Amino acid sequence: MKKIINYLRQLQANNNREWFNAHKDEFLKCQDRFNELVEEVIKEISVFDPAMASLTPKDCTYRIYRDVRFSSDKSPYKCHFGAFIAKGGKKSGYSGYYFHISTGGDDCYPYCHMLAAGDYCCEPEVLKILREDIVNGDGDFDNIVKQADSTFQLEREGALKRNPKGFPADAPYSEYLRLKYFCLVSQPDDEFWEGEGLAKRIASKFATTKPFLDYINRAIEFSREK
What we know:
The chain is α+β, with helices and mostly antiparallel strands. It is 43% helix and 11% strand.
């Protein structure tokens, strides 16, 4: 993955159409290598999560072109290659396994390398169901979070300062009720992406998050049945 990381660092320093077009062949080679990795990761994940077995890289990957219409940053290209492996594909609305390779060396999204599991944009009805499940679950969600690999942390950005409407201040597991995003995030360093067996390393990390995904997807499915 060194070649991909090096390419992305060059793109970050030269994020313009002239440079990108002049290095299009290099981009295509990096894209092909990343798609190969995605295919390998899907295969490895399917061992413990068979719902992913029918997916292809096309179902999971994203274009490198940024949508700049509503952004103050008019840089035309993303500086990462990302994939979201979810039941039914990236547009299905289910929670899933996300990873991207970026420029590294920065703690801020999207420049850090990332592994993530969960849902970064829960519908209000799904949030309500999750919060009710947590309150009534006698600690099951807390146990599930703790099963994840220790490098994963809950995304707490945007968390509420108080419990949401309908939940008393002394409700059990209030720290979880206040979450805006139900997502576990890990930020591996450059070394993680080097050497043989990368797909297996990624999948082994994600395997520890499957109970977390199942918990969220149960709420998503319940919301769709209403």
